């Protein structure tokens, strides 16, 4: 049995998008100084795409609850649950940063206020980075598991 088309489409679209979101966060956003003229745009795209991906994952979960789908057991089941949990924790810590440093006014409304000089001091930053790291490890485990046998990969293509 294969996953329903809606779940497959959302899975692959989000799978492709999560990898640049993680790499962009670690290697681009994090290393960019708050005074960098591109930082506001970079943060704007990061936050908007992040919310979009989480919404798509939520839609996938709703489809999952309503339509027949393959069942998982053992480690795969727990990795999938942990993946869903991390995906939903990303915006929780993300919005903690947004509200505690008023990033919505700075980034989206462009009110002219400067970004905090040290972004890593914003409440929620540590948890956002820690969840992203956990997600990276889980995705690596997930990819390794998915390629273990052909039956598993066929269910998602
Ligand atoms: C799809 C989910 C998301 C992923 C995979 C992701 C990933 C990342 C990563 C890897 C970092 C760098 C962490 C570090 O410095 O250790 C980061 C930074 C950040 N993210 Fe996200 N993020 C996501 C969603 C969001 C959302 C929804 C928001 C806000 C609404 C957000 C706001 C931020 C902010 C404000 C930073 C700090 C940038 C800086 O240090 O200059 N993220 N994100
Ligand atoms: C190239 C990367 C990826 C590959 C090859 C891949 C492959 C697969 C395969 C084959 C399945 C079906 C597993 C089964 O039926 O036992 C699956 C399910 C799943 N994948 Fe991925 N995946 C990738 C990336 C991702 C990413 C980035 C995420 C989330 C951040 C993710 C989250 C999930 C979840 C939650 C399921 C379980 C679906 C469900 O039962 O609701 N995958 N993946």
Question: What would the keywords be for this entry?
Answer:
mainly alpha, single chain, binds protoporphyrin IX containing FE, 157 residues, 6 helices
The gist of it:
The chain has 157 residues and is mainly alpha-helical. The chain has helices spanning 5-29, 39-66, 74-100, 103-108, 125-146, 150-155. It contains 6 helices and no strands.
How are the secondary structure elements laid out?
Elements: H1 5-29, H2 39-66, H3 74-100, H4 103-108, H5 125-146, H6 150-155
Bound molecules: protoporphyrin IX containing FE (HEM) (2 copies).
What does this protein structure show overall?
With 157 residues, this protein is mainly alpha-helical. 73% of the residues lie in helices and 0% in strands. The chain has one domain. The longest helix has 28 residues. The protein starts with a helix and ends with a helix. The model has no long low-confidence stretch (mean pLDDT 96). It is elongated, with a radius of gyration of 17 Å. It contains 6 helices and no strands. The structure holds protoporphyrin IX containing FE (2 copies). The site of one protoporphyrin IX containing FE (HEM) has 19 residues, from helix 1, helix 3, helix 5 and helix 6.
Q: Which regions contain 5 or more consecutive residues with pLDDT less than 50?
A: none
Number of strands: 0
Count of DSSP-assigned helices: 6
Overall average residue pLDDT: 96
Find the structural class using helix and strand composition: mainly alpha
- The first-to-last residue Cα distance is 11 Å
* Shape annotation: elongated
Oligomer: single chain
Main β-sheet: number of strands, strand sense, barrel status?
A: none
User: Strand-and-helix sequence, N→C?
Assistant: HHHHHH
> Level of helix content?
over 70%
Instruction: Spell out which ligands are present.
Output: protoporphyrin IX containing FE
β-strand percent reads under 5%
* Overall number of domains: 1
Work out the radius of gyration. 17 Å
């Amino acid at each position: 049995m294969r996953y329903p088309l809606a779940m497959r489409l959302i899975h692959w679209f989000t799978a492709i998008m999560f990898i640049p979101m993680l790499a962009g966060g670690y290697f681009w956003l994090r290393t960019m100084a708050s005074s960098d003229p591109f930082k506001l745009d970079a943060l704007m795209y990061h936050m908007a795409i992040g919310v979009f991906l989480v919404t798509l994952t939520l839609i996938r979960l709703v489809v999952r609850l309503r339509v027949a789908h393959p069942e998982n057991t053992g480690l795969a089941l727990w990795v999938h649950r942990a993946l869903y949990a991390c995906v939903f924790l990303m915006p929780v810590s993300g919005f903690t940063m947004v509200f505690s440093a008023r990033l919505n006014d700075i980034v989206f409304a462009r009110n002219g206020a400067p970004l905090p000089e040290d972004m890593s001091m914003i409440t929620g930053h540590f948890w956002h980075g820690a969840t992203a790291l956990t997600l990276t490890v889980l995705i690596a485990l997930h990819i390794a598991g998915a390629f273990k046998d052909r039956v598993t990969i066929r269910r998602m293509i």
